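Q: I'm building a small set of examples for a reading group on sequence design. Run inverse folding on the following structure and report the sequence directly after it, with nothing in between.
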């Protein structure tokens, strides 16, 4: 059920305005350029979209997970890639606020909420993707400081990021317990950017990498100590998976809207395309999948907001929403004929994004691992 005008949160109204007036007008150009411009974050901040998860007492919007995911659905109707750029940025502002480290809050948080500094998470590596505990970027002690060496890959917002949340291994024999998290300036000595990747689509996300070569880091940059950092990184995984599911709901909503409007206007063989039963049934199946994706996402977000264990629910939501979004967008393109391929409609952009979503925050196969581990507990006699 869609909220009425009277019960829509002001942030949701701002997101709708930003999506229609800013994202929709520029999404194709951003994807052609390989990233959103830096001004994108400042414009988002003017709509209060760079402070979504920060508590009110620190100047944030203070949204719960349900409110956050509703905003993501609204924005993703126009472009999932640029929406995900904001997700990454907002998640880092939330992590900084949650840490309570005053020097980080003073140095970074206010500027990030204004869109003046852009954030990125550096967890994935060329040889460590789904197995996040296998990271090999190292941090070794040098007096009161640390020396970082290694590479990070598949980093969202890499093109413009100013503030880097970097996960490193401090003790290889300790496994996940040896992982620490640092908050760094992207332009400091010893840090270099890898050129952005040339992907199938979704270039507005500005995906690339970073390298660290004898990067000297003060101990004050420590955001999460060894023994705590990996747990902190995993803390938000259920939220992240709900976010991807919510964005896929937005893709499906937009795909259905475009297909219904097009088939209601285009005629063939003396009738509107939308009057053919074959077209109607394809769209009806898309609508059912959309309702199911919304329901699964809502179940998971309610569990998170109530303090429950949302691990299984978030895996179901992410797996189902990403899988059905790809099929829904494909089917909606098909009923529109060759017009569905045209960049004058958003569906080609959404198809690329739907495929990308199957890898974000844990590939579909990882969701199956999570679900399979729970099967005995849920269904065994």
């Amino acid at each position: 059920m869609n909220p009425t005008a009277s019960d829509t949160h002001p942030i949701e109204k701002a997101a709708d305005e930003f999506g229609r007036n800013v994202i929709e007008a520029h999404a194709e150009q951003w994807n052609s350029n390989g990233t959103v411009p830096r001004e994108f974050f400042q414009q988002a901040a003017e709509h209060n979209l760079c402070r979504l998860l920060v508590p009110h007492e620190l100047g944030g919007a203070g949204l719960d997970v349900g409110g956050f995911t509703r905003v993501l659905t609204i924005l993703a109707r126009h472009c999932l890639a640029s929406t995900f750029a904001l997700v990454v940025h907002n998640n880092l502002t939330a992590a900084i606020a949650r840490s309570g480290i005053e020097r980080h809050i003073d140095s970074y948080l206010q500027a990030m909420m204004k869109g003046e500094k852009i954030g990125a998470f550096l967890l994935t590596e060329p040889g460590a993707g789904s197995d996040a505990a296998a990271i090999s970027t190292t941090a070794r002690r040098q007096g009161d400081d640390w020396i970082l060496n290694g590479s990070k890959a598949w980093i969202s917002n890499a093109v413009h990021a100013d503030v880097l949340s970097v996960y490193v291994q401090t003790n290889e024999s300790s496994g996940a317990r040896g992982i620490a998290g640092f908050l760094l300036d992207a332009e400091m000595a010893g840090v270099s950017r890898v050129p952005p990747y040339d992907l199938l689509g979704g270039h507005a996300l500005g995906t690339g990498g970073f390298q660290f070569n004898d990067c000297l880091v003060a101990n004050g940059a420590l955001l999460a100590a060894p023994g705590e950092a990996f747990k902190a990184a995993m803390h938000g995984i259920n939220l992240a998976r709900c976010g991807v599911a919510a964005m896929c709901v937005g893709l499906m909503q937009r795909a259905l809207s475009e297909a219904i409007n097009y088939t209601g206007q285009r005629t063939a063989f003396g009738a509107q395309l939308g009057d053919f039963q074959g077209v109607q049934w394809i769209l009806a199946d898309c609508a059912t999948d959309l309702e199911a994706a919304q329901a699964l996402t809502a179940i998971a977000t309610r569990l998170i907001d109530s303090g429950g264990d949302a691990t299984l629910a978030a895996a179901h939501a992410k797996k189902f929403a990403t899988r059905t979004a790809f099929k829904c967008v494909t089917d909606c393109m098909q009923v529109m004929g060759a017009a569905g391929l045209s960049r004058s409609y958003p569906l080609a952009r959404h198809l690329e994004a739907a495929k990308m979503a199957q890898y974000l925050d844990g590939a579909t196969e990882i969701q199956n691992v999570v679900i399979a581990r729970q099967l005995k507990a849920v269904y065994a006699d």
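The domain at 236-375 is CATH 1.20.140.10 (Butyryl-CoA Dehydrogenase, subunit A; domain 3).
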